[in-house]
Structure formats: structure tokens, C-alpha cells
Amino acid sequence: SAVISQKPSRDICQRGTSLTIQCQVDSQVTMMFWYRQQPGQSLTLIATANQGSEATYESGFVIDKFPISRPNLTFSTLTVSNMSPEDSSIYLCSVDRPGPNSYEQFFGPGTRLTVL
Amino acid sequence: EDQVTQSPEALRLQEGESSSLNCSYTVSGLRGLFWYRQDPGKGPEFLFTLYSAGEEKEKERLKATLTKKESFLHITAPKPEDSATYLCAVQAHNNNDMRFGAGTRLTVKP
What we know:
heterodimer; A: mainly beta; 7-stranded mixed sheet; B: mainly beta; 6-stranded mixed sheet; about 60% strand
């Protein structure tokens, strides 16, 4: 399995501000994923981040609102920009660990964001 | 479009009362079907990956099975510590992202 840490674990922010969430992995991985889990909902993929290239965003998510950095193979950041109460969610990063006969994806502990 | 439907939404069991959770899916070329456990306030914890119809995997009181249209997560003699939300997700061959179901919230009463 992969050991994934996220910072901060939670935050309460004011409307109109931005928050940057960090994701650190204990080993090098090719792909990192950012998900959002709104209250009472399941996980929705925001974007896929590969090192050395622009992140790929899913329908409904744009770079101006959710800029992502991937400076190396163990680290990524997601920024939630110009926040509104609708952005209150848990934000999760995940990584894949493909093997010769298996494919698994592991998640970080999440960042619980509340926007007032 | 890939779709994942989990049932029931919520399930309450007595300790020791075995049951099954269902995950129905449609996907254009299944690469893998995943089961996760999620406790409140935490990230999903990986349980199983299933790759082809007929495959089964077990871990303690949990057993996951797969057909071409659905997967079951069987829970045998559950304990209160098995209480959690169980998530199912699918991944297609032509895509790296995963499509998640809404989850089944399991409560096991002592």
C-alpha cells in the first residue's frame, strides 16, 4: 500500500479566499488524482495530475477554480480558489500502484473544508 | 457512460447477522472493480480489486464476488467494528479515473 498524507486535515475559510491543500506520498508515483466528496455524497474526480504536464480536468471542473501543481513524483497541491459555501467538501488525493497483475488506488485521509 | 449503483443505501444488522451489499455497474470494458471502506471523517480504505467475472476475494469477514453486471460484498457474522460506509468503484480500460457509487452505510448493532 501507499502512505499518503494531506495538509491541512481541516480548515474553516471565509468566502472569497483561497486554500491550498498539499498531498505527500511516501514513494514515487506516476499519477495522482484529486477527488471531492460533498456532504453525504460519494467521490467525484476533479482532475488527474501527472508530473511534468498540465493536469487533466473532468467535466465541470476548471483550472482557474482548482489549479493543481505536481512539481515532483511524490507531491501535489490542489488550490480551491475564490471559495464559496458550495465548495465545502472533503478533498482527497489518491495515487495508483499498478502491478504486474493488479491495479490498486489508495487514498489520503482527506482535507475537510468548510466555507462560511 | 459508466455507471455504478449501490444498494441498499443503508443497512442495519445485528451482530452476527450475515448479509450482502450489491454493486451494479455498466462500463465500457471493465479494467477493475474496487471495494473500499470509509469511516466518518476519513479517506476510503482499500479492500479489494476484482478483474474478471467469477473472481472472488476474501479478507476476514468480507468476501467480494464479481459477475459481468454486478458485484457483491458478503459480510459474514459482522461485528460492530464493521460499521462503515462501503464504496464500490469501477475503472474502464480506456480511462485512469474511477467511477464511484454512492455507497452503502452499514451499521452493526451489538
